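Example record used in the benchmark description.
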Amino acid sequence: MKKSIIAIAMAASIPMLAQANPGCGLGAQVFEGKNDPGSHIMAATTNGLSGNQTFGMSTGTLGCDTSKKITFSAADLYLNENMEKVARGMATGEGEAINTLADLMGIQAEDKATFITATKVNFGKIFKGDSVSADDVLASLKSIMQKDSSLAKYVS
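Model output (structure tokens):
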């Protein structure tokens, strides 16, 4: 019986899992500071079940800020979940993680070596400390890419 209830609950929450990185709402408040997949799923599920995120966006409460532009980036999500692997790849100038990040950022094969070299040379500017966020890393990385003639075309 327990397995059936769990299966039904999981199936019912599938639409809510599409928002696995909730930025606001009660779920974001309850699970603030957590960065594991389970917490993200529980935060999204909490928001979906209670419908509070819509209220938060309408009223500007629960950490919701509708003045920010809606964006989606696979690179953001990948970096957020693979920060240590990407850092190692940037520091050494090799590895699957840095290659995957380059692919997700749309770096063409002919510019990939330049991208990887730029991340290695500027590692200290990209990872400015132990508590740097994925957003900070991407902002620094994009800033460095803008200064390189062959990489600037990948940064909007």
